[in-house]
């Protein structure tokens, strides 16, 4: 296992050994084909002799079963290889994508979601195209070699058809590939246009523009379909060449064998050909181009898979190391400024967070409250000003957002996400202090009650408290809370504010909020 | 006729009839193309069966004649079969090429009509009932669903091809006797239910489970990404990745099961050819046929079984196509008539009542309240995008929520908080507002929205292409473009949702001043939602929400 995901490695090489095993099964299929051909030869050449007819028929049926088993195995092993490769890519990429999603901003979050899809897109490449491609390099020669045992000339005929095949593919194949890729891009653009206009449908309708936009879509659709057909005429030529030479090699072998058996060859017979040998060669003839035809059928897997591999070949940033533990004795922001990518900036803001107490940053939505919290947590750089730590070094902070993370597992596991080595007693204390007691009482098993991945069954207030319990269990003295009371009803919010006031006696709380009740409860407030 | 088995007309849920009608209209117009494709496919299948059968017969016959020599050899007509073999090779190639070309042409043409037709259906519905479909995930799935239908059309000729190949194979077997013909017919007929059984048992169930698991994976990924700060702060990237990877592994297990089902079907189709060839040969032996005719029948059996393969593989996808069909059908659902079909033809000179504030034509109102208090909800309810604002909203005496969408659209131009821009040029986006707008009008609107300088600075000006979601425009620029577009619509009321968010103070002041002049000059009314002081100066009357 190489675990390679970087672009330095050429596509499609040096994949796990399991992928080679799938190719092996595809090669073994040639043995089944040979058994079929031998059975047919025995049956026809021994026609009239019941023993050889039955033996031949038996061999043919056996060959069918063998090929079925071998091909099913090849598909199965190929899929296992693809699944292994996907798992490897996920293990290498997901931690970095999730770990850096926040600091890279919202668009990066969408990128990460897309990256998960992209990993899925390599399945066909790994399961089908690659094993078939490796097998297609050897299998035709194997077929020709087996045919040569019966009729070297028939084998020669097959090999000779490779010449025009290679030539035709070189001429038409490149053009066909270019036009197939272009066609894929055109269809992609059309799909994009369609989705884009559907997404903007409320606007389109409000302006009464649905007819105009509909006509424009119809025109674009029509144009793409016309152009695509023109491209297909070329793109299908390479498939046509393959089909033609596959059919031609069968026809040439049949005609050669027939005339040879008749003794009517227009040249001195190069070999003494019997009926059995002739039938063996004939039955093997379609097998010569079969690996290439299978490969052509998996072309779409290759296109999507290689596009995905290219998208996954970028160098991943390293996963940032968590801050080492450090004592906390208060912090100061001095004329801090935060810049966004679109040129808008926040600040300058100055504030002091003492060792204990509740400090609220308030201001309208989009004024940069959350960004300031992120800067204190070390997730965002400051564009100006300074962040000073009274104890000298940045202390790792705990964080509870509007929609805290819930993973499948017990409530205790979810609280302990803040610190893996939290003891059961510490977890219980954190749950108690965060006001989770009513939730624990209502669930059989209390802390051992199971939550599912989307935290269904938790109310908004309970979910917030779970986030706060996690922050407390982390045993970090500085708590950063992003809109802890947003969207909660008044009574729930009041209870949560009381909890925060109690916590502020032992912790430093820096809270972003525009809730007047929370602002009123603060020891200090900063307006943006 | 095997073409009847096309899975495109199977669904029975509401809207299915509408989609079927759309597809049927397209298909009828393309019937000639599909018929040609089916003919080409049938010819290719016939040629494929014929090539193998003829070659077998020719070889066995040639061996006999060659061995007998003399008169038998002289009497053996080798020109006809050898020419037939070459002809079959050419016909098979040409048939396959034309089948692919014509079936793709039919699919493309049908879908070129389906996409705009689906759009028209969706557009004919009241947006207040559109929300579920318009989610990003629903839209993303749409592409895959349309692809599934396209695939089904492309594969449609496989049916006629399988039938033609089977008919020829039975006829060729008949040359060797009725027994091999019977065996051939029964064997090929038995293949269909066997393949169907495998698809139903071993492909449909894991395919549905895999789709479900993929949905769960996507939902969990989205939820986890929303908690990005916690992941970074507590160093949870590995733990979260392990959970997501476990969900992905569960999906992979279903996909592997599905692949094993596919492999099982492939195995059946692979084993069927030789088995049928052997049985047919034994039946030919029992019938006392010659070696040449037995070879003809046996190889035709192998060829016919191969021709059946692509049809059975296409049928194995029926369940997936049917579920794509069902989702598209929901989109194509026939629009219900609007509850109150435009009782208000007169759009100008009317007054509004908004949460207790009476507004005469040209009146102005500012909505105040913390975020989450329902300012956007109120504006979008007036615009007819939704119908859940609790405030009393009367448009010329009629409640907005029971007013037809068209009537609301004729009165209000909304510049929403997160405007959707089209992938297209800046001019395309502005001209969405009204047909036949001159460049001068566009520039004038851009001036008012304080965006004219930004557009002039772009290399292509008005013709500058904005990507999907207008990527290279900042949030503030997008909002100002949407504002300019709303101005161009020329409606009696302008609805602005946080129009100056993300602007610096100087630009904001300039925008407010120009907008004030424009409102005075045109007599347009204004309802404005904002947190910021500057734009609130435009509207002295305040409505406090929340």
Describe the structure.
The complex is a heterodimer of chains A (528) and B (546). Chain A has 528 residues and is of the alpha/beta class. Chain A has helices spanning 17-45, 50-100, 106-120, 123-150, 152-199, 201-206, 210-262, 275-297, 299-311, 369-376, 411-416, 424-433, 437-442, 460-473, 490-503, 516-521; strands at residues 331-339, 345-353, 357-362, 384-389, 398-400, 409-410, 450-451, 478-482, 508-512, 524-527. Chain A is elongated, with a radius of gyration of 35 Å. Chain B has helices at 16-29, 31-68, 70-75, 79-124, 136-155, 158-176, 178-226, 228-234, 237-286, 291-315, 318-332, 375-383, 405-411, 426-431, 439-448, 452-456, 475-488, 505-522, 533-536, and strands at residues 352-354, 357-359, 364-368, 393-395, 398-399, 412-415, 424-425, 465-466, 493-497, 525-529, 542-544. In chain B, the strands form three sheets. Chain B has a five-stranded parallel β-sheet with strand order 6-9-10-3-11. Chain B has a four-stranded antiparallel β-sheet with strand order 2-1-4-5, with no helix packed on it. In chain B, strands 7-8 form a two-stranded antiparallel sheet. The longest helix of chain B has 50 residues, at 237-286. The two termini of chain B are 66 Å apart. At the A-B interface, α1, α2, α3, α5 and α6 of A face α2, α4, α5, α7 and α8 of B.
**How much helix, percentage-wise, in residues of chain A?**
55-70%
Report helical residue fraction of chain B: 55-70%
The number of distinct β-strands of chain A equals: 10
How many whole angstroms does the radius of gyration of chain B measure?
34 Å
Low-confidence stretches of chain B: 1-14, 336-344
Strand order of the biggest β-sheet of chain A: 5-8-9-3-10
- Percent range for β-strand residues of chain A: 5-15%
What is the CA-CA span between the terminal residues of chain B? 66 Å
Provide the spatial order of strands within the biggest beta sheet of chain B: 6-9-10-3-11
Please count the helical segments of chain B.
19
User: Strand-and-helix sequence of chain B, N→C?
Assistant: HHHHHHHHHHHEEEHEEHEEHHHEHEHEHE
Q: Give average pLDDT of chain A, whole number.
A: 83
Secondary-structure element order of chain A, N to C: HHHHHHHHHEEEHEEEHHHEHEHEHE
Choose one word for the global shape of chain A: elongated
Distance between the termini of chain A: 53 Å
> What is the SS-derived class of chain B?
alpha/beta
Greatest interface and its participating residue counts: A-B, 150 and 149 residues
